[in-house]
Specification:
Blueprint lengths: L2 E3 L7 E8 L9 E9 L6 E17 L5 E5 L5 E4 L8 E10 L2 E10 L4 E4 L4 E3 L1 E2 L7 E3 L4 E3 L5 E7 L5 E4 L2 E4 L3 E5 L4 E8 L6 E6 L2 E5 L6 E7 L2 E8 L9 E7 L4 E3 L5 E2 L6
């Protein structure tokens, strides 16, 4: 049996924002729930479409340890994740939600139209792994829904560990993490020239994140742990530009902007 891990990394972020309700016809014990999809990248693909059919949250009451799954007001949709990089978002859900609850888990029910498009313009369907037929569950969310408080959750899916091939069949089994929107710091920078066709990778211990820069060279990562990060600016070998690797230290909650602006890749001279 041949099993191959597809060599790319995707970040899928779902942003859940709960804000207090000010409308007179809604209970003052209500919160408002918004869900957005953002930030994805691939090193080898032209498109990666994820079919999200339903979204659920597992909520508990502050007076009880028992909880229940609640389906959100989401009609489903297919999203090309490669259109959502470097902070771009698309809203999935915007609804009022009971306050004084806690979200502990999120479940994404995926449809059957997940697919990738390679550089040869050949679409390849992705089958759902048997383990997620009943939904992808993200644990340990712990978001309190309180009036007059905005609460947010980010979910990111590492596609390097999420898509694999067995005997010519491609399977989707998202490997995901979840963290509060206020968690961690961010790294922002610019790279040039764009003729180098670069991608950017940052690495700390077992955590690795990738992105392609925007047309102006900007790249952006968020939800990052504090500490030392290795930053790799990797040029397409066919362009004859040299890669650049350096380290920088991120403090708790820091919004780090890299210098110089831009970071210039050097051309290989004979």
């Amino acid at each position: 049996m041949r099993r191959t891990l597809f060599p790319y990394y995707i970040i899928v972020t779902i942003l859940i924002i709960i804000v207090s309700c000010s409308k007179e016809d809604v209970s003052e014990n209500a919160a408002r729930l918004r869900i957005k999809l953002t930030d994805a990248t691939s090193l080898v693909l032209k498109e990666l479409h994820v079919d999200i059919a339903e979204i659920y949250v597992f909520v508990t009451d502050s007076t009880s340890t028992e909880g229940e799954w609640v389906q959100l007001e989401f009609s489903g949709g297919e999203y090309n994740l490669l259109n959502l990089m470097n902070g771009k978002t698309v809203q999935l859900v915007d609804q009022y939600f009971p306050a004084y609850k806690e979200i502990e888990k999120i479940r994404l029910q995926l449809g059957n139209n997940n697919r990738i498009l390679t550089v040869t313009d050949k679409p390849i369907p992705l089958q759902l792994s048997p383990e997620i037929i009943d939904g992808l569950i993200i644990n340990n969310i712990e978001v309190d829904l309180a009036t007059n408080v905005i609460s947010s959750v980010i979910i990111d899916i590492n596609a390097a560990l999420s898509i694999h091939e067995i005997n010519g069949n491609w399977f989707l089994k998202p490997a995901a993490r979840a963290f509060a929107e206020t968690y961690g710091g961010s790294i922002k920078g610019y790279v040039s020239p764009m003729e180098a066709n670069p991608f950017v990778a940052i690495i700390q211990d077992t955590d690795t994140f990738y992105t392609f820069p925007e047309p102006n060279g900007m790249f952006y990562f968020f939800g990052l742990k504090e500490g030392v990060w290795d930053i790799h600016l990797v040029a397409n070998p066919e362009t004859n530009y040299r890669d650049t690797v350096f380290t920088d230290t991120l403090s708790v909650g820091q919004k780090l902007e890299l210098t110089p602006n831009p970071i210039r890749l050097q051309f290989n001279t004979p």
